[in-house]
Structure formats: C-alpha cells, structure tokens
Amino acid sequence: MLDFKKINKNKTMKIACVIPAYNEEEKISQTIEQVKNLVDLVVVVDDNSQDRTREVLNKIQEEKIKKIYHPINLGQGAALQTGNEYCLRQNFDIIVHFDADGQFLASDIKKMIEPLIEESYDLVIGSRFMGIESNIPKFKKKIIMPIAKIFNNIFFGIKTSDPQNGFRAMTKEAILKIKIENDRMAHCTEILAKAFKYKLKIKEVPIKVIYHEFGQKFSGGLKIIKDLFLKKISG
Amino acid sequence: MIQQIIAGLVIVFFLLKLLKQWKKKTISLNEFVFWLLFWIFALLIVIFIKQVDKIVIGLGFSSSAINLAFYIAVLFLFYLIFKMRLKIVKIEKNITDLARKISLKD
After folding, report:
1. Which segments of chain A does DSSP mark as H helices, in order?
2. Average pLDDT over residues A88-110
3. Cβ B99–A231 below 8 Å, yes or no?
4. Per-residue pLDDT reduced to its tens digit, A40-54
5. What is the structure's pLDDT at A6?
C-alpha cells in the first residue's frame, strides 16, 4: 500500500480506482488483485457484460471492492461516469481510471497520483509517447494515433502527446467539472476537451501499455468523431 | 392524367390512415393538423399540377412542378431525420441517467 500520508503532508487523501468492465471474465480478477493494494477502494462498473464477468465479480467479497452493475449496456464512458458519481458520493479526493483488460500496469498508479498531491495538478494522464516503449500495433501507432492527435488538436484544442489514453487520475474538483456525457468511446476526447476548456492543470506522465489485442480500430475512430459531432449539435 | 390519379389515390390512402390514427388517438392534435395540411397541400399540387407548373416557371425555376416537389420533399425528409436523430440522442441520455440511478441504488 502506498503511504499517502507520507506523500501528502497535510492530510490523508482518499483514493479510488474506477474500472469499467465489459466482457472481461478472464482478466477482471487479476486486474482487481493488482490494483486493490494501491488504492483505498476499487470501484468496478460492470457494463452489463454478456459473459461471466458478473459471476466472477460476485465471487469477490471484499470491503475494498465496490461492484456496480449497469442494468443495460451503456458504454465505457457511461461506466466511468457511474464510477465517478459513486466516488464523489463517498467523498473520495482522487479518482483513477484504469482499464479492466490488463493493458495498464498497476505499478504506474503511484506516479499518476503523485503530481496531483505533490504538485497540485488537477488531471494526470498517461502517455505512450514519452520514452517508455509500448508494443503498440504499427498501423495504430503510425496512422490512427497521429490522425486522432491532429483531430483532437484542431477541433478541441487538445495539446497532449496521447489524447486517446484511458489511464488517468483526477482530483475530486476536476471530476466535478468534467461530467462525462459521451457514453461510448468518445469520452477520452471529451475529458481532455473539458479539462482544457476549464483551464485545469494537466500533466502527462510516461506509462507502459501492454497490447493483448488491437483495441480501437479505424472504424471505431470514425464512430468517435460521429458521436462527438452529434453531442455537439444536440447540445 | 393516369399518374395524377395514382398519386391522388396514394395521398387519399395516407389521408385515410391519418384519420384512422386520429380516431385511435395515437397522434396528438398538433401532429394530426400538421400531416392533414401536408397531405391536402400535396393533393392540391397533384390536382392542379398544370397551374402549379406555370407558377413554378413564372418564378424562374427550370424544373417542372413535380420535380420541384420532389426536391422539397427530400429536403424535408433530411430535416426530419436530423430532428429525429437529435431526439434519439436526448432519449439515450435519459436512458443513461435512469440506468445509472438504478445501478447506484443497489
């Protein structure tokens, strides 16, 4: 367990980790196991999985693990927002977003949280392009990500090296300002766009991502653009 | 002339369907009035197609009245799709809020 009293001299910060899960029966237990000793509470939001994820989660009976079940499938953005709202109600000071599929390293959580406590940052996001090598598929690295980066910069004023990274840590104050309204995969852009809009203090830290599969495809990127456009015109 | 009769019959069919829906109270008064006016207007265009043709030419359009009616119909349909899409986005938001409330209640 991290000694957060030591990190923050003024008070003990309550830290929660939100893990959205959809059809993650194979990886979810392992991910929870890796994360649970690094935070005060793990909030797993099962987004109405169609596999045995719920069954697996039901077997975990620990006070430090809060399980929330969506009655219907809403999307990753919605699952994160549900987790955020639960953490706000429980008065957590810092909330970490972490993927259920074992892509991220739990050991990186400490360096994601530290800038929030020690340097008063509002939002810390992980970056795959700051020196630490990740096994990113070539097409994704050379084509999809640069296009996404340019798109985010031009249309949303996002100037970060890895705008589509789902590993982030935020303070309670930042969470209160950033309400995720894009239910599906456009939430990464939305969170950063709002963070820049509200002039939050943002820091990027290098993290390692382990790819087990390709992940977001080019068609997924186009769907994100469509979702962002529709959200924009519908107010 | 035959085309006019066919188009007229199609419009009468839709008018009858509309009246049936109104009798069953499945549509609101505003919706009923809107669609009633819409189909009556379409029927008038079909009946007086030659006169409408003259008006259209007089207004400086190069196409015939029936073509113009199609252009307007397509534009109108695009507008309807757009409005429906916005409505769906709002309904989706309500569903999300509701589902979230239920999940956080447990």
Report:
1. 4-7, 28-35, 53-59, 76-89, 109-118, 138-139, 145-156, 172-177, 187-197, 218-233
2. 95
3. no
4. 999 999 999 999 999
5. 45
Q: What is the pLDDT of residue A5?
A: 42
What is the domain partition of chain A in residue ranges? 4-233
Interface of B with A (CB under 8 A): 85-86, 89-90, 92-93, 95-96, 99-100, 102-104, 106
Q: What are the chain B neighbours of A83 within 8 Å (beta carbons)?
A: none
CA distance B29 to chain A (A): 26
Q: How many domains does chain B have?
A: 1
Q: Would B54 be classed as within a structural domain?
A: yes
Mean per-residue pLDDT, A178-184:
92
The CA distances from residue A233 to A155, A229, B82, B84, in Å, are 14, 6, 10, 13
Strands A168-171 and A123-127: what pairing?
antiparallel
What CATH code would you report for A4-233? 3.90.550.10
Identify the domain containing residue B68 by its residue range.
2-75
B100 to A86: CB separation less than 8 angstroms, yes or no: no
Let me know if residue B82 belongs to a domain: no
Hey, what are A204's tokens? 């990027």
Nearest CA in chain A to B83: A234
* Disruptive mutation site among B95, B103, B104 for chain A (greatest number of A CBs within 10 Å): B103
Q: Is residue B52 part of a domain?
A: yes
In a domain, B22, yes or no: yes
Whether the CB-CB separation of A204 and A161 falls below 8 Å is answered with yes
- Distant-in-sequence contacts of A144-148, Cβ < 8 A, 24+ apart: A144/A216, A144/A217, A144/A218, A144/A221, A147/A221, A148/A221
Predicted-complex ipTM score: 0.81
